[in-house]
From TrEMBL:
Keyword field contains Nucleotide-binding: no
Name used for this protein in its record: LuxR family two component transcriptional regulator
Domain of life where this protein originates: Bacteria
Species for this entry: Sphaerotilus hippei
Listed Pfam families: GerE, Response_reg
GO biological process: phosphorelay signal transduction system; regulation of DNA-templated transcription
Domain Response regulatory: 13-129
Keyword DNA-binding assigned: yes
Entries under InterPro entries matching the protein: CheY-like_superfamily (IPR011006), NreC/VraR/RcsB-like_REC (IPR058245), Sig_transdc_resp-reg_C-effctor (IPR016032), Sig_transdc_resp-reg_receiver (IPR001789), Tscrpt_reg_LuxR_C (IPR000792), WalR-like (IPR039420)
GO molecular-function terms, A-Z: DNA binding
PROSITE patterns attached to this UniProt entry: HTH_LUXR_1 (PS00622), HTH_LUXR_2 (PS50043), RESPONSE_REGULATORY (PS50110)
Modified residues (4-aspartylphosphate): 64
Length: 219
């Protein structure tokens, strides 16, 4: 008896989300260049992604982190729980450990820098589809470095964070004293501690550091 032919495994279905047309087209070309991958859709921003991805239910989504009309984290928060069989891989041009951790907490299966090679990208897509959490080497290195040196503001108390948030809104020491119901000398004491812990020479520098490192949220 002639053995029946073994059917090939179905291609991994990939959806690409990136607001830069050249990057998006480049990612699609990389996907289509592999015999075991196929691109089943694309979106230029987060809102389109949230609308289109459930319609095609891809195996893997390549998701840009920084986009207009919903960023990658917001897309993850909207879709990851709804599509448990879909693996989301977040791409970014700037690797920040805090963003990596937020993405993984929101349901990402992997995180990679846009400087990753085509070979790395394909390897990570296959790994994510296989059920593994995958990080590109640049992301792994950034996470290790972050563990070696605490992030700025890690030693701030909750009271100091509350005070710093008011400073970021432009509140004076007098305003802060009124809002937090504490004495003006106490405010000045906390401000001095905040500057010391952040290594800042003045309030403006402290606020800029707080915003850059996302120590306080922006409205």
């Amino acid at each position: 008896m002639t053995p029946s032919p073994v059917s090939a495994a179905p291609a991994i279905r990939v959806f690409v989300v990136d607001d830069h047309p050249m990057i998006r087209l480049g990612l699609i070309a990389m996907v289509e260049g592999e015999t075991d991958l196929e691109c089943v859709g694309e979106a230029a921003h987060g809102r389109d992604a949230v609308r289109l991805i459930p319609e095609v239910a891809p195996d893997v989504v390549l998701l840009d982190l920084l986009m207009p009309q919903m960023d990658g984290i917001e897309v993850l928060q909207a879709l990851a729980a709804r599509l448990p069989q879909t693996r989301f891989l977040v791409l970014t041009s700037l690797v920040e450990p805090a963003q990596v951790q937020r993405a993984l907490a929101a349901g990402a299966s992997g995180f990679l820098a846009k400087t990753a090679s085509a070979q790395e990208l394909v390897h990570i897509i296959r790994g994510a589809h296989g059920g593994r959490r995958v990080l590109s080497p640049e992301v792994t290195e950034a996470l290790i470095d972050a563990q070696r040196s605490p992030a700025p503001g890690a030693d701030l108390t909750q009271r100091e964070r509350d005070l710093l948030a008011l400073m970021a809104r432009g509140c004076s020491n007098q305003d802060i004293a009124g809002q937090l119901h504490i004495a003006l000398p106490t405010v000045k004491y906390h401000v001095t501690n905040i500057l010391g812990k952040l290594g800042a020479s003045n309030r403006t520098e402290a606020v800029l550091l707080a915003l850059r490192h996302r120590i306080v949220a922006t409205d």
